[in-house]
Structures are given as C-alpha cells and as structure tokens.
Amino acid sequence: MKNIIVFALGMQIFAVPLYAQKKDSLSHLLQLSIENLMDIPIYSVSKTSESTFEAPLSSSVLTKEQIKRAGCTSIMEALRLVPGIIVREQTNGNYDIHLRGLDNIPPNASLVFFTSSTTLVMIDNFPVYNYLHGGTFWETLPVDINDVEKIEVVRGPAAALYGPNAVSGVINIITRKPAKDGLYSVANVQYGSHNSLIANASAGYKFNDKISAIISGNFQNRNRTQTTYYDPITNSYVGLDSLTAVKINPLGRANVNERYPHPHLAMRKYAVNGFINYNPSNKIQLSASLGTQQAEVQKIFATDSYSANIATAKAETRYANLKSTINDCMVHLSYLYGTQSPIEGLRIWKWNYHTLDAVVEYNFKKIRNLNITPGIIYRRAVYDDSKYVNTDIKEGLWSGKAESITKALSLRTDYKLFDQKLRLVAGGRVDKFNYPKKTYYSYQLAATYKINERHLIRVVNSKAYRTPLIIDLFSNLDISGRLNATQTFLLELRGNKDIRLLSSALFEVGYRAQLRDNLKLDLELFTTKTKDFSYTIFESGQFNPTGPVGFTGLLELNNITIYAKQWGSTLAMDYVEGKWQFKPFITVQKTMLYDYSRYANSPSAPPTASNNFNPALNNIYSGRGTKMKHKATPSFYGGAYINWKAGSKLNLNLNPWFFSSQQQLQSSNLTYNDGQRGVENVKGKLLLNAAISYAVTKKLILTGNFRNCLNNEDREFYKADSPSFMIFGGVHFEF
Amino acid sequence: MKKYFIEKRDCIHYMKYKTVLLSLFLFCSFTLQQEKNKASEYNLKAAFIFNFTKYIEWKTATSENEFIIGIMGPSPINDPLVEIVKTETVDNKKIIIKQFNKPADISFCNILFISQSSSASLDDILAKTVHKGMLIISEQEGYAEQGTAINFVIVNRKLKFEANVKAINTAGLTASSQLLKLAIIIK
User: Fold this and answer.
1) Measured between alpha carbons, how far is A316 from A538 in angstroms, rounded to an integer?
2) Which chain A residues touch B159 with a CB distance below 8 Å?
3) Which of the residues in chain B have pLDDT under 50?
4) From the centroid of its chain, how far is CA A452?
5) A702: distance to nearest CA of chain B, Å?
6) pLDDT per residue over A654-705, tens digit each?
7) Which residues of chain B lie closer than 8 angstroms to A41, CB-CB?
8) Backbone angles phi, psi at A462, to 5 degrees
C-alpha cells in the first residue's frame, strides 16, 4: 500500500510539471492573432476564487452578494449557507451554532454545556467570543448583515494560526469598506411574520484613496413563534402562568415579571458602529472602529429552578478596535466592555466584564517565496460580579473579580517551492496563562500541492486548545437551602485553576478541482480527536445529623474521562451555467464517544440516588473502556445555494438546508429517566428558503423573502420554540 | 499523528483514508490528461492589448520614441505587461508602463487600461482623457456604453471585447475594420 502511494506521488511530481509546460506562456500568446486569442478559454476569472482555491485549510467564503440574494435576515442565519456548520433555531432569530458538531458533550449535562464553546468568532480579526464559557452570545455582535463584506470560515483546529478557542474552527466576519470615491449609503428594511423588523442603514464617505469612514446602525425586533414554554414537571408546553417553575417562585410575581419582561419577544437588539480607515501611503494602513450594542433576547442558555428552559438574556457592550500596519509590522489593539445578564432576574447571573487584546506581528519577506511572521500576543479578560451579589457569602458565580490573562508567542511560516506549486504552511504557538499554570503548545502544519491550475491537493495536521474559561477556573458559589425541618444544606461550587484545557487534534486531506470552466469542487476528509472536556463534579459531602447544617457538599469543575473522535467528509460544489448558479454542499460524519460515564461524582462522593447509592462503583471513571455513537451531532447535514439571475432586474434564489436526526440529552434525563423529560429527539428535516428581488432602478431593490417555505415546525433544539413559515417584504436602497 | 491510529479499531479507518487519498491521486492523473490549452485571464488581456496596437491608427503628434501604456488602479495585468515590454515594441517604439492611482495623476498615454479594482469614478477618468488621442480600455460591464473605447467581456469563459466606435473616434483615433469585425460593437 505504502509503495503504491509513493509511486503515485512520484508519478504526479514528475509527470505533471512536464505537461504543465503548456501554451499559457505569454510569448506564445503574443504570436497569436486576436481571432485565435478569442478562442482560448480562461481558467481563472477572479482573484478571490483563486485564493479560495489555494487556501491551505478547509475554508469557505460567503460574500455579501450571496447573503443578500439568499434573503438571509441575520449573520447567524447566513451561516446556513456555509458548509460544515450546524445552525439550529432556538427562538425566532436566535440560533445554536456548531462547527462540525461535537455538541452536547458530555451527554446528560446541564444546559450551559450545550452551547458551542470551541469556535473562535471574530469581527475583522478581533475576537468576540466569550471568555466566560468559550461560546458566543451571537445577539451581542455589534455588526449586522449590512456591515458584512464577507464571512470567512475555517473548519478544524486552527489555534496556531488564529489563537486559542479556534478548536473546531474560526468564523471571521469581515466588514465592508467604501469601494468608490465619494458618498455611499445603503439602507435595508425587511418586515414580516411574527412582527419581525430588520432594519440596517449605513453611510460611508471615501474622501480619497487615503481616507474613508463609515457609520452604520442596525435594529432587529422579532416575536417568538409560540407563546408557551416547556414545563419538565408536566412534560408539556404551557403558558407562562401555568409553568411549575413560575408557580413555585418564592419571590412571587415581581420576580417573574423581572425574569420575563416581554414573554412574546424573541429578540430586540440595536447597535451603532463607526469605522475609519486612513492609509497615508502604500506602506502605512491605519484603521479604527468603535461601537455600542444592546440586546434583549429569549433564548436557551442556562436555567435555574424558577425559570423555564427559555430565559431572558440581556447584554450591552461597547468596543474600540485599532489596527495599524506600518511596513511589515502589524499592531492590533482591541478593548471591549459591558454587562451581561444571561438569566435576567437572577442576580447571580449578572456581571460586568472587560477584555483587552493586543497583538503585534512582523512579516519577514526577505527570502524569496518564504514568509515568516512572528507575533506577540497579550489578552486579559476580567469578569466581575461583585457589583450585583454579596461576595462575603459567596452569592455570585465567582463572587468577585475573575481575571484570565494570556501571554503568547506565535510563529507562522509560509514557504512556496517547486515553481510555487508546493506550499508549506507551518504555525506554532506557545500560550502561557495565569491559570492553569502549565504552558500550552499548539501547532498547525499544512501542505498544498498545486498539480496544475485546476487541481490542488492538501494535507493538514493540527492541534488546538480551548481558551481557559472563567466558569472552569473561578466558579466560587455557595448554594444553601433547607434540608429538613430543622437543618439546612450547603453546596460549595468551586472552580479548578489546574484544570486541563480541552484540546482537539486533526488530520485532514483535501482536494480542490476546477473540473470544468464552470464547475468547481472542494472535498475534505477529516478525523479529529477531542479530549479533556470539563464538567461539574460532585467531589465530596458530609452529613451532620446534629448541627444546624445537615449536609455540606463540594462541587468542583473538573476534567472528565470522556473523549470524542470524528471521521467525516465535506463536499462542496460550485456550478455556473448561464444565469444559474448552483452551490450544493454536504457533510457526512460519524462522531463516537469513548470512556463516557453518566455519573458526575467522584468515588469519594456520598451515596445518593444519582449514583445508585454506590459511589465507589458508579463514578466519573466508571465509563472507561466503553464507546458509543454520539447522537447529538447529526451524521449528515448540508444545503444549497441556487440562484437564477433572470435578467438585469429580477433575481430568484432558493436555499434549502437539511440535517439528519439527532438526540439531545439534558441532565434531567438522569432524574426522570422516562425517555421524554431531559430528551429531545430532533427529527431530520429539510428547510426551504426562497428569496426574490426586483431592481426597480439600479439603486432601489424590492425584496420578497420566504423562510421555511415548507412550514416544517419540527423543533431543532432541546425544548426550544417550533420554527414557523415566515414571509418578509423589504426594500433595499443603495446609493 | 500515528498515535491516533495505533488502536486496533482505528487501523481500519486509517486504511480507508489512505485508500481515498490514493484514489484522489489517481483521479488527478486521469483528469490531467483532459487538460486543454487554457490561459490566465490577465496574460490574455495583455496579449489582446498588444495586438490592438497593430489595428489602431495612432495620432502622429504623439510620435515620441515611447509608446505609453497606463494602468489606472492596481491590476494583475501589470506583470504580463512588464514582461511584454522586455521583448516587444510598437512601431519600433519602446513601450513604457505607467501606473496611476487617481484620475488627477493621469498623464498622456497611448493606451489607458482601467483596472476593475480602481475606485475612481469613470466620469472623472473620461473627463481627464477626452480628445487626447488616448485609447481607453476597461474591463467592467457597461463601461463601453458609458464611454470607454474598448471593454473586455467574458462570454462562455472566453475573452471578447466591446468597441465603442464613437468613443474611439472622439479620442481622435481610428480602428481598422478588421478589428471592428471581431468586436461587439456598442453604439
């Protein structure tokens, strides 16, 4: 087998360049007449497609034109047009977004562990993910569809090139810059079902090639598609007043109103952004952006005894970013601060936070075909709940100021050889955190071989770590309550500053081909191993039959034995025929879990019903040696972008999206164990979206937008709202 | 990497991946034989531009010892044009390449190529170049209608060109009928 591969490789290397000496040489073209030149097909039309073609990692680019034509109403929804991303609707406009899956690990966990915590989300290369739990509060993105020039998605671990948290991949939203001199303005309003209003407006001015500025604003209001909430006690969807959690709330109606100020509302958010670019010369580029956003949503993130699955989350953020490139030196500074309250009305889930990111990189290009880019990185994230809770009695999640600091060195090299046919990209990064104290090394090795202008193969091997999470490191909460008529209990929840960071390693091969002038193909085959997941473990406990505190227990954030492996493949095609564009994509993958134990307690925990009163036998280690198919990640999913430019004025677009069935398991599955409560059997489904646009003039476009045309109401996320058919009418104005 | 596959149960998967990888190589070998004679877009455009010089009657007043090709905005056409300059001449004149970034910078050139990535407004460029004996070549949809002399278009992945005869004549130039016969005429 090995010999055959070596032989095949050898044949490629020697046979291909010989043939590649084809008649594309300029001297040959100069000998031809215009008539002959007109008969030669072009193999590459745009620079963009060339760079996507040559990208060393699994990546996709979604452009603003595609987003507009497909009728996407938000950045989150637009991600359904990108291969390898699973986008599940929770409530109208709020989504759970996972790159290649690995969701709901460990199974039977509490809701907060459902969120994707391994994707690095950035706006113009500035990270916007949450240090709290590694996830992204998507509703807090200050930019919206109007601001987007393109969205770049990298699939697979890429921390060495992009920074920690790029474990399952990177989503980088690139904002638009004024293209032409003078004033430009874009306004876009869509109104539709469930009182959904999406309004975007931006105005920019390009004074000359050196200076340009944009100011933009966005607003979204969306009502829920249903008025009921899931009640686990009765296993049914009921009105707010009939919800058991509401009825037993000891703080009464006032607190219920605080938790659910707008029960009908799914999302209300607005943001204002300003962007300035100043390029005094070719070698100096300066850009600055600042903005503010406010959001109130009802989504599924976390819950307590007195809230439904869906909770009101509020957030406000302000940010300032500065980027300068002088000659070959790039300096990036970013500061973000705000307040988050993911369960409104529950004080212990509220905090102020600020994060500072500083990156300095230098690009050496002295040696021909070799690029070396060393970098220094400093990141500081501070989460502080002391303003909202009594820290003396450890009332808050971390009861004080939690500070996570990262200092890192990175090195990227990019080397092209054999007439630029072979490209080797190597990235390494050393991260030193304040906690955990250990030094972490991540790497990325990629090679692409351009067989000719139409065929490229590539190989990637990488390893990445998740960023240290505030929840994992700093949890510091005392939970007390009544144990019996005379005694109370005390549960101490503590973080673990020595926790091992979740990591993922990848091996991938890919093949890209421009099979015909109008047909592109991108195939990737990958396998990953992800380990060192963390969870809340019941470590120990002591009963005291005589004292006032009858039971004292310790819960600690700790690593668990479970690890996950994935094997999969993503295939994407781009086919253009006349006025038609057809871009289907599909991912087929298998996810397996090893060493999973359903018991979240240590061997020294007290005997309780949850460990069948035998902690020595039933504990976090008792799953060793087992393996099971992971049902929460779909085994296939994908979609298509089908566009018909019916003329200069009319455009029609269909974008179907589908996934196979899944099963999500929440911790209450272990309590009730009835196959219903704590279980969501998500059915395989096909969503069909359609959009039509008519350009009344070059500047004014009318749009009709139909989301979920088949009115498939099957739930997509654990006990979430049922999606419904939505129709939007809109106006797009561009000057 | 091997450590992921040392477990027996994974060996089968690894073998499968090797097989797929091998199939890819073999597939590539096959498709290679299907390759036809193709050219890159800007090599072709540069070759076209050089060819155009033979079919245009240039104004005699500009008979210096240089033939100037200007490029408005950054463009990949720069590299092939620089290559052409090394070996070719127009009417025994040395070819000079000039790069412009804004309309105000434009000085006389025999041919001005407007890059599609140029941010300058077409009206400003045309205002700066009208009646000066300059052949304006562009590569964006609708530009010939708006007044450029020649506009490249891609039809079925082949490079064609539109010619605006009025614009050529307004510039004080004459295009041969042989050239116009091949062009998509814009009126």
Assistant:
1) 34
2) 37-38, 40, 42
3) 1-12, 14, 21-37
4) 34
5) 23
6) 999 999 999 999 999 998 999 999 999 999 999 999 999 999 987 899 999 9
7) 36, 38-39, 157-158
8) -150, 160
Question: Chain A to chain B, count of Cβ pairs less than 8 Å apart?
Answer: 151
Contact B39 A11 (CB under 8 A): no
Tens of pLDDT, residue by residue over A587-638, are: 999 999 999 999 999 999 999 888 999 999 999 999 999 999 999 999 999 9
The CA-CA-CA angle for residues A227, A229, A235, to 5°, reads 135
Q: Which residues of B touch A281 (CB under 8 A)?
A: none
pLDDT per residue over A179-227, tens digit each?
667 888 999 999 999 999 999 999 998 887 788 999 999 999 999 999 9
Provide mean pLDDT across the span A432-447: 93
Q: Give the Cα separation of A125 and B85 in Å (integer).
A: 40
Pick the CATH number of B41-186 from 1.10.10, 1.50.10, 3.40.50, 1.10.4030: 3.40.50
Pick among B36, B40, B45 to test the A interface (most A CBs inside 10 A): B40
Minimal Cα distance from A16: which residue of B?
B32
Report the residue from A34, A40, A509 with minimal CB separation from B182.
Answer: A34
User: For residue A2, how many other CB atoms are within 10 A of its CB?
Assistant: 7
* Contact in structure between B102 and B72 (CB atoms under 8 Å): no
Instruction: Tell whether ipTM is more than 0.85.
Output: no
Distance separating alpha carbons of residues A20 and A14, to the nearest angstrom: 10
Give the nearest partner residue to A47 out of B32, B76, B124, using CB atoms.
B76
Identity of the amino acid at A31: Q
Structure token pair of residue B32: 């290679």
Chain A hits for B51, Cβ within 8 Å: 33-34, 37
- The model's pTM is 0.79
A674 phi, psi to nearest 5 deg: -110, 10
Q: Domain A41-227+264-734 classified CATH 2.40.170.20?
A: yes
d(CA A459, CA A56): 8
Dihedrals phi, psi of B170, to nearest 5 degrees: -60, -35
Is the pLDDT at A22 greater than 80? The verdict is no
Q: With an 8 Å Cβ cutoff, are A453 and B38 in contact? A: yes
Q: Helix, strand or coil for residue A304? A: coil
Which chain B residue has its CA at the smallest distance from A47's CA?
A: B76
CB A144 within 8 A of CB A188: no
A206–B39 C-beta distance less than 8 A: no
3-state helix, strand, coil split of chain B in percent (to 5) is 40, 25, 35
- Residue A344 — pLDDT band, cuts 50, 70, 90? very high
Instruction: Give the Cα separation of A177 and B169 in Å (integer).
Output: 37
Closest residue in A to B81 (Cα–Cα): A26
CB B102 within 8 A of CB B58: no
**Domain extents in chain B:** 2-32, 41-186
